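Hi V.,

You were right to ask for the full record rather than a summary. Here it is.
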Amino acid sequence: MNFGSNLQDNERAIAASEIESVHRGAAPVRARAVVRSMRSRLQSCLRSRLAAKVGNSDETGAAMVELAMVLPIMLLLVTAIFAFGITLNNYLELTNAVSTGAQLLAISRGQTTDPCATTVAAVYGAAPFLKTANLSFTFVLNTTTYTGTSCSSTSTTTGAAGNLIQGDPAQVTVSYPCSLSVYGHNYAPTCSLVARTTELVQ
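Predicted structure:
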């Protein structure tokens, strides 16, 4: 039920009856009183409606101010979570790729003259979404350290290839830069992802 509509209908009925009484011979004073009463009721109705509109406008304005204050913080948090998610995904991909490369290195004894290049190719293939130019490699074969993407030997029994001794550990370490940049500001400029795997040479 519409309470406001019923109230207006009642007011109209009262006003009509009062006016009708005036037309039937009521005194002029009574007629003026009726007019003043109708005017007062009309003004009261207009004031109440105006106050309701002003109240709604204030609530809308307050909501807009709150949104303007909260929205930048929400966007900052969402962007930071997105950047962290990308970094975490890169680390998982790097770890899996290094594990794959180390396993291939462990079974490469006597089969290659450049075990480093063999391992690097396997890492590249297992990490298609990482930039290969940003990957840095370090190998430890029979306590000898090799850096870079190649450690070529003249034969399978000399140099790095000769250091693949059965039962000895072969270690592969790969680093990859990470970026935690949010709206142009890098919160970890020296961040670097490092994955290391050690396998026994077969």
